[in-house]
Amino acid sequence: MSKINAVITGVGAYVPEYKLTNHELSQMVDTSDEWIMTRIGIKERRILKEEGKGSSELGAKAVLNLLEKTNTKAEEIDLLICATVTPDMQFPATANIISDKAGIKNAFSYDINAGCSGFLYALSTASKFVETGVYKKVVVVGAEKMSSIVDYSDRATCPIFGDGAGAVLLEPSDDNLGIIDEMLQSDGAGRIHLHQKAGGSVKPASHETIDAREHFIYQEGQPVFKFAVSKMADVSVDMMKKHNLTPETLTWFIPHQANMRIIVATAKRMGIKREQVMVNIEKYGNTTAATLPLLLWEWEDQLKKGDNLILATFGAGFTWGSIYMKWGYTKNGSTANN
Are 109 and 122 spatial neighbours (Cβ–Cβ below 8 Å)? Predict the structure, then answer.
């Protein structure tokens, strides 16, 4: 009997209309377009400005876009997993709220928090439900309102992050397509370099934590950069070696969009050309768990059935990893299921 793989059969996304440019940021903190472009590689980022709307708003719109594109009915979905570090609230899970807003009533749903690696972790987790034959249609969402935890008086972090959401549909395939392998790792010792100081059970919200501005992203740039370059490159190169992939046989590298210098350094270690690397950091910034599905959404027209892809991430935790997959369809063409 052929092995069942979980294959992506569709991609949806949503980004807010409002664009926060480097010029506008330079009016808020001591920075400039040149400083941001040289160190990070971002020109603008999307921001969800409407009051009373959070990550579920972005995620639901991405899921509805996905369902429409794939001609899938909401009631057909068996499971929805949302990767996020900016949940609407501590509980219930943002995945529950997304499911409600998208009309998904016959599925169970839950969140995964793995920092910027969240979507990769969620994709791996969701794939097991499909590979074991338990479920036929699983949605994985990466949804982030990063602007809700960004300190716009912090010159070091406020240029980095943006808001957005992407979603994919996973279905079974016995055609040697879909997710072939994953390498996922974490090291909790790295938490001291990248975290949110207050708001959890160790340090609940108080007047003191709010006054001290401890409900925003705290990041020590140098150690995070060093670890990210090393770990994301290591796991991507290891995946290539394990599956005898060469720069010639790897079609696309899909890296987390945290910093252009990290992306360039990782691609160099892999020995691949710039033309093989998906990059949209310049216009969206770091949308954390949404970066990978946003890349797939933007490049969907260029992806072809059977393409060899490596997805790689690094995030708070520290968390990092890579997934090797064979793409399941050519848009407006054949898919893994026909």
Answer: no
- State the DSSP string of 47-91: ---STT--HHHHHHHHHHHHHHHTT--GGG--EEEEE-SS-SSSS
Q: Where in the chain is the domain with CATH 3.40.47.10?
A: 5-178, 180-326
Contact present, 270 and 232 (Cβ < 8 Å):
no
14-47 pLDDT per residue, tens: 999 999 999 999 999 999 999 999 999 999 999 9
**Superfamily name and number for 5-178:** Thiolase/Chalcone synthase (3.40.47.10)
Select the CATH number that applies to the domain covering 180-326 from these four: 3.30.420.10, 3.40.47.10, 2.30.110.10, 3.40.50.300: 3.40.47.10
The rounded distance, in Å, linking the Cα atoms of 117 and 85 is 10
pLDDT tens per residue, range 208-244: 999 999 999 999 999 999 999 999 999 999 999 999 9
Q: Per-residue pLDDT tens for 296-336?
A: 999 999 999 999 999 999 999 999 999 999 999 998 866 66
Active site residues: 116, 256, 286
Helix axes 260-270, 221-242, angle to 10 degrees: 30
β-pair type (138-145, 163-173): antiparallel
